[in-house]
């Protein structure tokens, strides 16, 4: 039910609804209603394409939890899910990443930097990485190297939400006092992720990646309608999820 609510409230769905209602009003010969709905549709599209709405909404999320200096020693790295296209990976037999793929790339780089760190990957099962995060590469390998030899890697594919990510990762890591763990996720997702882990009593060092905004709020036309709407849907959804987590007590700001 919650998933359906997010779908109905995202900007792209609202635009489709306005266009559909305008069409219905035209069929019913409610010309004034149709004109009003069409005007609203065009105004929303114009605002999305001409104004930096995505920057306005996304930049505060991406800057809320700043990147901390990397410590000299790291005991573990938690990489949150959402970067792997598991259906394509399963069918094609090699790792397929989506727009958040920088999470996995950053994790591989950090694993090389900290060869003794325990690596925890949420939202994906081990079979998705059958050719990756290993010492000896295959023809289908993307992320490999000697720093993965004998490394402790835990996959938590059961996690289906940020709260489950944090809950399962905490159980798998069983962190001790004084240990240093990194948290890797997209910058726009870091406020909710970091706050969720803190609410469970575990404060990790944030390592935000996959930034989508520049911080430069300039008005300029953007004709990538599909891409702009997709980015806007994502950031609106994240603001909504942040509010829900805060009200439900799953978030510690």
Concise overview:
The chain is 48% helix and 9% strand. The protein has nine helices and five strands.
What topology does this entry show?
Blueprint: H1 2-9, H2 11-27, H3 31-50, H4 53-64, E1 76-79, H5 86-92, H6 102-113, E2 118-122, E3 153-156, H7 162-173, E4 181-186, H8 190-199, E5 205-209, H9 225-247
Description:
The structure is a single chain. Helices cover 48% and strands 9% of the residues. The chain is of the alpha/beta class and 253 residues long. Strands 3-2-1-4-5 form a five-stranded parallel sheet, sandwiched between helices. The chain is elongated. The two termini are 26 Å apart. The relative contact order is 0.17. The mean pLDDT is 90.
SS-based structural class? Answer: alpha/beta
Query: Overall pLDDT, averaged?
Result: 90
Biggest beta sheet summary: 5 strands, parallel
CATH class of the largest domain: Alpha Beta
Order of helices and strands: HHHHEHHEEHEHEH
Q: Can you tell me the CATH architecture of the largest domain?
A: 3-Layer(aba) Sandwich
Query: How many helical elements?
Result: 9
Output the CATH homologous superfamily of the largest domain.
HUPs
Q: What is the fold named in CATH at topology level of the largest domain?
A: Rossmann fold
Q: Which of globular, elongated, flat, extended, rod-shaped describes the shape?
A: elongated
Q: Note poorly predicted spans.
A: none
Count of individual domains: 2
Number of strands: 5
- Going across the biggest sheet, name each strand in turn: 3-2-1-4-5
Overall helicity: 40-55%
The rounded Rg comes to: 21 Å
Strand content: 5-15%
């Amino acid at each position: 039910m919650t998933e359906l609510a997010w779908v109905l409230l995202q900007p792209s769905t609202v635009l489709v609804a306005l266009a559909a209602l305008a069409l219905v009003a035209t069929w019913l010969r409610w010309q004034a209603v149709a004109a009003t709905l069409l005007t609203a549709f065009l105004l929303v599209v114009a605002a999305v394409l001409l104004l930096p709405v995505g920057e306005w909404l996304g930049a505060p999320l991406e800057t809320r939890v700043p990147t901390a200096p990397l410590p000299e020693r790291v005991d573990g790295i938690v990489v949150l899910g959402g970067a792997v296209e598991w259906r394509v990976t399963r069918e094609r037999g090699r790792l397929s990443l989506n727009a958040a793929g920088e999470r996995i790339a950053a994790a591989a780089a950090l694993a090389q930097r900290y060869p003794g760190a325990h690596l925890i990957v949420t939202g994906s099962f081990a079979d998705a990485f059958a050719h990756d995060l290993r010492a000896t590469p295959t023809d289908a390998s993307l992320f490999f190297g000697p720093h993965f030899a004998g490394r402790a890697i835990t996959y938590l594919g059961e996690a289906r939400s940020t709260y489950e990510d944090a809950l399962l990762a905490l159980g798998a890591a069983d962190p001790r006092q004084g240990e240093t763990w990194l948290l890797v996720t997209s910058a726009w997702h870091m406020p909710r992720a970091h706050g969720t882990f803190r609410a469970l009593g575990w404060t990790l060092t944030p390592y935000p990646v996959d930034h989508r905004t520049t911080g430069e709020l300039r008005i300029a036309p953007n004709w990538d309608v599909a891409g702009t709407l997709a980015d806007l849907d994502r950031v609106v959804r994240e603001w909504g999820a942040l509010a829900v987590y805060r009200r439900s007590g799953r978030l510690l700001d």
